[in-house]
Protein: App1 family protein
Organism: Algoriphagus namhaensis
Amino acid sequence: MSDSPPKNRLLLTLIYEIKLKFNQVILWFSIKLGFIREIIIVPFNGFGNSSEIYLVGRVLKNNRVTKSNPEDSVWSNVKKMIRRFRTVIIPGAKVQASIDGENYVVETNEEGYFELTIKGDFQLQKEQSWLSVRFTLLDQILKNQGVVSAEAKVFIPSKNASVGVISDIDDTIIPTGATRLLEMLKTTFAKNAYSRVPFPGISELYSDLRRGASWQDNNPFFYVSSSPWNLFDFLMELLDIHRIPFGPLMLRDIGLSRSELISGSHRAHKMQQIRHIIRVSDPLPFLLIGDSGQEDPEIYLQIVREFPSRILMVFIRDVDDSRLDYVSTITQEMAKLGVDLRFGKDVQKAREVLIRHRLLPDLIEQKRDQFCSSERI
């Protein structure tokens, strides 16, 4: 057997250690020279159930990225996006999470992230879906730092939810060109939350799925994407502007790790997060929505194999015609497991399928026709 993989891992580990030392030097000089004026806690909205909640967050320099404006120029969009990626992280910082009168302390890792799972008895008021958690930085990083705190929201599905939705984002909700690097970079950096427009009918379909067949189901949404955590605020803003239901966003760190050039593969990240969501949301059944551009069909097939009784249906947006035969093969594999996979581009046809399966009421079809495209599914 070749010994090149161990050598590659050794080289990556060495490069990663150099990167960590470089980050430490940058942080030290930035503090000493006054380049860091404010440190912030960025909590990424979590999820859980009545006995367990899960949150991720990061401590870093405040780059003061302002919200998008419809009149923003391309150059303004580029500058804001560069700021999102020009992070100065704070490793080894202690952060206190406060919930229901209880305090929990966690420490940021080498990349400035913290991850927290809290066990308890979390009771929500009727019709409430979001639980508040207060984070406070315990360490003094800057002179005259003051109190550094932030509030996170933890999503807990209500008891009257009938189905959950796990959805990809890029090329599923919004056109991105994730399989074409130059197009993806242009779209990501040159556009903002207003100019990046979802596919026709997506906002209406997702909003109706949130309400469900009873119009009052309050069905939960979870967004699992391989986009970096640097885009969290941007994606939350995009959901808000285009009236797409809020839900936890499970993104990933794409930086160099000790063993990989990019931390965690696309497939491994999505598999891990989807498994976690399904486990924590037991016994809620799920719809899986993705696209054919990357590995969603393969990932969802594996999820169906592991949780056949928990997956009601799979929808795959057709963004790559060359994958038609392959997706058809996966469709047949899912059918053997008792799960229906629908493949195509037309939101209206997807709506008709959901109505037939009693996940949407018939009356919505008449109300929403004006928003839907006429492409095939």
Remarks:
- Residues 164-371 form a domain with the Rossmann fold fold (CATH 3.40.50.1000).
- The chain has two domains: 36-155, 164-371.
